[in-house]
User: Fold Nitric oxide reductase NorQ protein from Thiohalomonas denitrificans.
Amino acid sequence: MTAEAKRTAFQELPFYSPQGQEIALFENAYQHQLPVLIKGPTGCGKTRFIRHMAARLGRPLYTVACHDDLTAADLIGRHLIGDGTTYWADGPLTRAVREGAICYLDEVVEARKDTTVVLHPLSDDRRTLPIERTGEVLQAPPEFMLVVSYNPGYQNLLKGMKPSTRQRFVGMSFDYPRPETERQVVMGESGVKTATAERLVALAGGLRALKDHDLEESASTRLLVYAGTLINNGFDPVEACRAAIVEPLTDDPETADALMEVVRAVF
Ligand code: ADP
Assistant:
C-alpha cells in the first residue's frame, strides 16, 4: 500500500459540529450506494466530517492523499517481489472494496487523469472494480462507499475534474463554519475559554474579509485551532497568531504586516 494511504477503524466518534444538512445527506447517499464529492477550502472540516461519518456508520476508513504521481496501481494494487516470489498486494481502493469500507480520496484533482478513470465503473450503478493485472472483477458490497474531495480554489484548467467523472457523484460544498459553530470547534479542539475563542473567530472574520492581498487562501478553522492550542499553553496571543495563522498564510513581508495589524486590533 502507498505510504499516503491510511486505514482507520474507529472506536469513538470523532467530534464534528455540523454546518447544515450534511450528516443526513451523507447517510442518505450511503444507504443508496451513491458516491459523494465534497468541495471546500483547506482546513474547513472535510476530513473530520468523513472520519465522523465513517465512525457513525461503523465502517473502516481508507484515506488516500492524492498527488500528481498517484497512479492507478497505487490505488488498485501491484505485484511485489519478496522471498524470491512475486505476490499481489491490494491497494487501498481494492481493500476498501473487499472490506466494505469507506475510501476517501483527498484532493482527487491532484491525481492523474488515468487514475480517476478507474473510479468510473465503481462510481456508477455497476459498482465494480476491474483489476486488470489479475483478471479479477470485484463487485462492491453495499457497505462500500467512495468519497472524494477537492479544493475548487486551487483548481486550474488542466486539473479540473472531467464532467464524466463529476457527474457520477452527489456533491456537497463546505465552507468555514458559521461563527457560533466555529467558536465551539475552536473551544472543543484547543481547550481555550469562550472569550479567547470568540476573539479568534472574530480575527478569522477580519482576515477572511481582506480582499486586496494576494492570499491564495484565507485563515482556516484548522489555523484557529492551532493558534488556540498555543494560547491555551500559555503563549502570548499575538505571537501565537503570528506563528499559527500569519506565517502559514503568507511569505510576503508586507502582507504579513497587514495581517498582523488585524491580529493586533483583535488581541
Ligand atoms: P479539511 O479536510 O477540510 O482540510 P479538516 O477536516 O482536517 O480540514 O479540519 C481541520 C481541523 O479543523 C480539524 O482537525 C478540526 O480540529 C477542525 N474542524 C474544522 N471544522 C470542524 C467541525 N465542523 N467540527 C469539528 N472540528 C472541525
The chain has a mean pLDDT of 91. The beta strands are 6-8, 36-39, 61-65, 77-82, 85-90, 102-106, 128-131, 136-139, 145-150, 170-173. The CA atoms of residues 129 and 138 lie 5 Å apart. Residues 15-17, 40, 42-48, 177, 185, 189, 221-222, 225 surround adenosine-5'-diphosphate (CB under 6 Å).
